Amino acid sequence: MILRDPVHGLVDFEGDAERVIGPLLATREVQRLRRIRQLGLTSLVFPGAEHSRFAHAVGAAHVMTRLFSRLRAIENALPIEHRLDAEGMRDALAAALLHDLGHGPFSHLFEEVQPGDRHHEDWTVDAIRDPGTDVHRALEGISSGMATRVADMLRGRHRLRYLARAVSGTLDVDRADYLLRDSHMTGVRYGLYDLDWLLRALGFGEVAGEWVLAVEGRKGLPPIESFFLGRHFMYQQVYHHKATRAAEALIRGLFARAGELVREGRAPERLPPALASAAQGATVSLGDYLDLDDAALLSCFSSWEKSDDAVLADLAARLRVRRLPKTLPLPTEADRDASGTRGANDTEEVGALDAVWRECERRAREVATRAGLRADLEVRLDVAEDTPYDEPSEPTAEGLWVLIRHRAPQRLGDASFLLGELRGKTVRVPRLLFPAELREPILSALEDLLPA
Amino acid sequence: MILRDPVHGLVDFEGDAERVIGPLLATREVQRLRRIRQLGLTSLVFPGAEHSRFAHAVGAAHVMTRLFSRLRAIENALPIEHRLDAEGMRDALAAALLHDLGHGPFSHLFEEVQPGDRHHEDWTVDAIRDPGTDVHRALEGISSGMATRVADMLRGRHRLRYLARAVSGTLDVDRADYLLRDSHMTGVRYGLYDLDWLLRALGFGEVAGEWVLAVEGRKGLPPIESFFLGRHFMYQQVYHHKATRAAEALIRGLFARAGELVREGRAPERLPPALASAAQGATVSLGDYLDLDDAALLSCFSSWEKSDDAVLADLAARLRVRRLPKTLPLPTEADRDASGTRGANDTEEVGALDAVWRECERRAREVATRAGLRADLEVRLDVAEDTPYDEPSEPTAEGLWVLIRHRAPQRLGDASFLLGELRGKTVRVPRLLFPAELREPILSALEDLLPA
Amino acid sequence: MILRDPVHGLVDFEGDAERVIGPLLATREVQRLRRIRQLGLTSLVFPGAEHSRFAHAVGAAHVMTRLFSRLRAIENALPIEHRLDAEGMRDALAAALLHDLGHGPFSHLFEEVQPGDRHHEDWTVDAIRDPGTDVHRALEGISSGMATRVADMLRGRHRLRYLARAVSGTLDVDRADYLLRDSHMTGVRYGLYDLDWLLRALGFGEVAGEWVLAVEGRKGLPPIESFFLGRHFMYQQVYHHKATRAAEALIRGLFARAGELVREGRAPERLPPALASAAQGATVSLGDYLDLDDAALLSCFSSWEKSDDAVLADLAARLRVRRLPKTLPLPTEADRDASGTRGANDTEEVGALDAVWRECERRAREVATRAGLRADLEVRLDVAEDTPYDEPSEPTAEGLWVLIRHRAPQRLGDASFLLGELRGKTVRVPRLLFPAELREPILSALEDLLPA
Amino acid sequence: MILRDPVHGLVDFEGDAERVIGPLLATREVQRLRRIRQLGLTSLVFPGAEHSRFAHAVGAAHVMTRLFSRLRAIENALPIEHRLDAEGMRDALAAALLHDLGHGPFSHLFEEVQPGDRHHEDWTVDAIRDPGTDVHRALEGISSGMATRVADMLRGRHRLRYLARAVSGTLDVDRADYLLRDSHMTGVRYGLYDLDWLLRALGFGEVAGEWVLAVEGRKGLPPIESFFLGRHFMYQQVYHHKATRAAEALIRGLFARAGELVREGRAPERLPPALASAAQGATVSLGDYLDLDDAALLSCFSSWEKSDDAVLADLAARLRVRRLPKTLPLPTEADRDASGTRGANDTEEVGALDAVWRECERRAREVATRAGLRADLEVRLDVAEDTPYDEPSEPTAEGLWVLIRHRAPQRLGDASFLLGELRGKTVRVPRLLFPAELREPILSALEDLLPA
Fold it and tell me: Which of A304, C393, D363, D429 has the most CB atoms around its CB within 10 Å?
């Protein structure tokens, strides 16, 4: 199979192991990913970002095939039993393609309303293991036991651990594809690190008694540095964009209000069974969960515009015509002391800021309540956090390593000037979200808390 | 307003005329375009081609703003009353943004089942003129009479005719954006002509007593040649791709079967009202029409998989898991005589080929009928046609012209070697579509008609 | 060895056969190519086009390595003795790297002044065969007899003929690289065909009893069509650009005047020995020829600005500050009859045009002579010709073929609508070149011959 | 004038102020820049990096025209007398085009051997001010006094100081072009920040009583962050690449040996007068300096291969066939303590490292001397330094500022998490350079000083 892709160009699944791709693509569960946008509501802000999780899944599988080529080129460094073999390739390719199978629409928002803190990763594993799914049958049809192996791999367990890490780790095919794809599609090009060079820079090293993929030499540093910096840029510009966060707040409001109505016995029309179960605190069945897709939720929201519950109808209408909450930036470390304390990660200081933010939220909710609004649904404190580069403090195979000829492997943060400086540092962007019409009274109420 | 776009990069609506963009984007009808993919089923073949008509509409408006800059730079050539003015800019920008407003999902397929041959252009004009739409109100809110002016412009009528042609003509902002966008998103890069240079190559000339935008000098030829060649490549590779055509045949089958069921009084579940009206030969209302979007049709097809009508259920299931009809290329002029007759457009010859194609369809339908299938729904002759460059034979303002200093304007086909050679020539790609399981018997039945 | 390249990105010479690259790069003759610009004077018009033949040579070798991958993937179609082997790879890689070794600065201009019509290809073969060159020693150091094999391959002779054709044929690694590189560097993007897809589209077929590389199926047509169209665009826009042609006319004048001075015994200062020999009709030695590079010629031209021969000094000064001859487009077939004769290639018509062009040159030279100028050095008729796609009329292995399953190979011009229409057609761009100051009198003298 | 450029695409000098470009391009001094490669010896490592300072100069002027558009869009923020006017535009455009006029081949290497520490900036100003140059005449021909104004602007002095800073400052058109161009041409894409967005992000603010160009709001941070990070990557990967540094060491050796020979009265053949004067400690004349270009130096080095001075001949031969010195990385802060001291800029520590490096050089020179080589010419300690982002500690108009609505301007390092973390930090890359044949004995001699 040969495909064209806006991000990777020619995508070629033609080898032996690649035969797993066809049967998996033909499953109902994988085709469902065509109906779930990778970036959820982000296309409200970046109109080009309409790509689906399906396109990303294909892209991740493609990156895996490219990784295979690199692994072949460097396998001499490995004892034979650790080398890539046919089964390992099939498992890894399937895992790469299926890694996001359990994503629903706006998936982390749905995770919040489900009982029991089920993450999309859990749904992925369920869909693979459940003997009733197409995808399970397709995997078992390829090789007996494969469904279990792939599910395990997605949890980090595999005979070839470096392969499992390449499916899901600090530097994995998931991130490798989505950084490029999201950068490309949003039109924000900050995540466009150099994939060719990154792959070419990989070698095998032994760390803590385990074979790991590591960066070969100092000339492999730039692609990996720009991978992490690109990720940071994407968080700042896209994933944590104020309008995306504001739209998510609207959805949170819709889910919360719908849940209340369900529990009051006034379930809104067209409510998908998965949401109904979740609202009642019941376990969501796999079938119901997989029936959720963007189309299902959007047509549901659309019908809610005509709901006889005014709160629900209003929230739905606002989403539909993109009338989003306003965002107000709250004070940060940088504002507190522009002369140097910044980045000190002084716990006391940060604690103090947290209190200020909560106070801002409290006062704004008072304003909303006085205005006759449901303050808990309409006013929210939103703190977006990103740690551009983190590194285990102990030398472990989980971390990233740099191989330098004639020396012991170095930790990436030691070898890279940039990542060394950023290591473990966190940036937080605090905002207050509220309906546009409350802007003036809220600004007045917070005047003494905001920077001059 | 500033946006990012994967195709155009920075998209900036910041001038005076650009103020029309905000209110129009906030309308229900424009937001609906987010839920209609530009290329319909093409993402089944090119997974990246998931962009919506909304992204395209924004792109077309952006190209219009870029055209404005060029028009400003060359306006000295025009009498003052023909120059671009504020109203003209607003009208043209609105028309560019709204030009596809009336597209539905898989729109030309729906056009076929509607009574009275209504095209998406008619729906666009209706949506703009109907006083009940958000978009009508937004236009009239900007300037009284604007709805009418914009609707007229979309039909080619405007005080500044060259502007109307730039909205909808041989070389218009619609094509200018979609060639780039579709090329980019499919990952097929053949449509990537040079927009900067194309715009820079435009000047004003007088043809048949009318001011027209024309190509300035021979060095403006390459971008316009590659515009038309790019369009041809896109037709060959994407718009007429065999799998896209095959998927469209499935949808035709679904519409046809659903229509039959409606007329038999067994209307399938969840049938959108627009489809129901069309099936009964009744006029489709604007409201019902605008309720159609990809989500609506896809969830409708999805529920039909469980229909108690076996034919409908089977067609729906095949679309869902992408089990498309097989395509068989039929003989062409080139096969008939590989030594030179090609391109002769010899009417007799073509007539003979037409008869061969119809005979192929007839025999294949016999095979299908013998196999117990609904031959009319399952077997189709499909002839894709493209004329890469056509030119009016009379000198008229509709055609494209080249301005050469100190001479009268030349027709583009006279000035361009490439387009001159292609002028008026048509390529036809005939195929037979049928269910995969009939491949062997159909090949046998056609043996004497297919090339050796 | 790994390199970075603006055109190909990561360039990797790491396989076994690639070991030939290192020793060849370290030769004096290959390093000399760094001092010869690929496009000669074109950077006077396209300032970015400053790339050297060295960069192109590396690029051509890279394309060869990519072709190897494709050949490996399709070799099952071949009898074992025709398959790519280690020696074939080394020969082909060396030939790709060395194919332009014999280019001098402005090489076809130098070819014109040499006795005996020696082309750069002859110098290439000489440099490889001469036991005194580094490159000869390097080749023989790799494998005995290799110098002869590589020289033969560059003349189209090799045990694996499809490999020799890939080094030098209609569709070879030379063109494959230079179209991309020249497009990229000039900033004119018309030559940017899709190399990935072109390679992927190649298969082996048997034509006239010989194994040839051919296009696999109709979906391989677009990259090859855009390869030929891209080449045509580059000819129209870059290689035949009027200012490039004008600058070449200046160099012709310089060579001609210097030759006269040599023959008069007044050889100008710093004249490179190769030019001196050529002017005297003597054979140019390989050593003298290889001493020519851009630096040598440019510093020679630079010192001629101070020559006591006024004609030579004036020509040199004009080149230095880019005061180029004017170009006047002469009438073409299209001008003669804009209504359809175009492209008829009617011999009589073309003959008539030729006569008109020569008459234009004759009259303009009269004007120049009257103005006291050396008319033969200063006024020239310049007819640039390009045949975008030509095809042998007999079925032969030289031509390009398309493989269609279950059928005999088709000629490319039969399978491709575009190339079929263009097949064998030639475009000619006639211009008159003369000093700017003669513009008015020359226009007057030609008035009745130029189109209205 | 319209040009095409591999980096910027369409380059258009068509406004009123742009009329200065034509006459300046036609000068001998600007045309000379075509013969000086922007990156000197870098094309030995990155074969594509063959672009000249001419192409860069045109690019810098183009970025200036793009800056003009932005300045027009934001000028309402300025008092009228500070706004861009026609004279300011002409001055700035000329300064942008001419800013590198005084660069010679391998210019900082030549600076080292000249008496009196003359930098290329001094030569630029001299060439502009000298009434004997074409460029001076061209400037005065455009507007009287313009030569002085442009020369002053290049030294940071102009009525519109923000314009002078845009010609030569932390964020200027020089860097803006060269980062993009060098990234593009080397094929290393790390310097490809987003110029469109960077320009769009600029606004006017008042700092320390002066109007400065500053970043508008937090959404302007990413392009400027990636500008500085891109610059850092380019230093790490290209400008400080070990092979470039090694080639520079060879040139240093050539200059040093030639100087010795001059002072011994044995000046080598073809020595350019500028080098001769410099070697004797005499002032170099402007004319002699401007006669230096790549062609002049390369043909000089080429003739030195046959010098009767064995040292000079050997150095010249090694450069010609690219037999560069070996580089050995010396211990850094990171090696000393991989667990956290890194980046502490602990003066004591760094002092200690300096001593280690000098000791390495001392021992290696002993080895070279014992081997009969000229140790001072052949063995060098080379410490490449880069400070990715520095910021004045006092609030001054020299620094970069961020404008945040309703607040005082913030320093860039306070507003940007990334630049805040990097502010003032320096990375040093210490290497020892020596002839390849000394590798083993030098490694032995340094064993106790190198990291395990």
Answer: A304
Q: State the pLDDT confidence band at D339, using cuts at 50, 70 and 90.
A: very low
CA A172-A176-A179 angle, to 5 degrees, is 135
Structural domain contains residue A115: yes
Q: In what order do the strands lie in the sheet with C202-207?
A: C202-207, C210-216, C401-403, C410-411
**Residue C103 shares a structural domain with residue C125:** yes
Residues C245 and C281 in one domain: yes
- Residues of B with a Cβ under 8 Å from any A Cβ are 3-10, 25-28, 31, 34-35, 43, 46-48, 50-52, 54-55, 58, 134, 184-188, 294-296, 298-299, 320-323
Last residue of a domain, one of A281, A302, A324: A324
Domain span including residue A311: 241-324
| Domain annotation covers residue C53 | yes
More confident residue, A62 or D301: A62
* Predicted local confidence at residue D452, as pLDDT: 67
Q: What is the mean pLDDT of residues C162-174?
A: 94
**Beta carbons of B194 and C194 less than 8 Å apart:** no
What Rg do the C-alpha atoms of chain D give, in angstroms? 24
pLDDT tens digits along A120-179: 899 999 999 999 999 999 999 999 999 999 999 999 999 999 999 999 988 999 999 999
* Cβ pair D322, C26 in contact under 8 A: yes
The 10s digit of each residue's pLDDT in B226-246 is: 999 999 999 999 999 999 999
Q: What is the tally of helices (H) and strands (E) in chain A?
A: 23, 9
* Residue C9 in domain: yes
Report the run of H or E that residue B385 belongs to, with start and end. Answer: strand B380-386
Interface test mutation site (partner B, options D1, D74, D196, max chain B beta carbons within 10 A): D196
Query: In terms of C-beta distances under 8 Å and separation of at least 24 residues, what long-range contacts does B354-361 make, across chains too?
Result: B356/B330, B356/B331, B356/B449, B357/B330, B357/B381, B357/B383, B357/B430, B357/B432, B359/B449, B360/B330, B360/B432, B360/B446, B360/B449, B361/B432
Residue A106 located in a structural domain: yes
Q: Do residue D131 and residue D27 come from a single domain? A: yes
D249 and D334 fall within a common domain? no
pTM of the model: 0.93
One domain for residues C77 and C35: yes
**CATH code, domain carrying A287:** 1.20.1250.30
Pairwise CA distance, residues A57 & A36, whole Å: 12
The answer on pLDDT for D341 being more than 80 is no
Cβ count near A252 (within 10 Å) = 19
Q: Kindly report the CATH number assigned to the domain that includes residue A109.
A: 1.10.3210.10
Strands C410-411 and C210-216: unpaired
Strands (E), A300-418: 326-329, 380-386, 401-403, 410-411
In this structure, are D246 and D162 located in the same domain? Answer: no
ipTM: 0.90
What pLDDT band is residue B72 in, cutting at 50, 70 and 90?
very high
Q: How far apart are the first and last CA of chain B?
A: 60
Contacts of residue A401, defined as CB under 8 A and 6 or more positions apart, other chains included, come to A205, A207, A212, A214, A215, A409, A410, A411, A412
Whether the predicted pLDDT of A346 surpasses 60: no
Q: Do D52 and C52 touch (CB under 8 A)?
A: no
Tens-place pLDDT, residues A55-80: 999 999 999 999 999 999 999 999 99
Q: What is the count of residue pairs from A and B with beta carbons less than 8 Å apart?
A: 99
Q: What is the residue whose two structure tokens read 């010709």?
A: C385
Interface mutation target, options A421, A422, A428, A447, chain D, most CBs of D under 10 Å: A421
Number of domains chain C contains: 4
pLDDT at D197 over 70: yes
Strands C410-411 and A210-216: unpaired
Q: What is the pLDDT of residue A341?
A: 41
Looking at the fold, whether C235 and C247 belong to one and the same domain comes out as no
Does D151 lie in the same domain as D177? yes
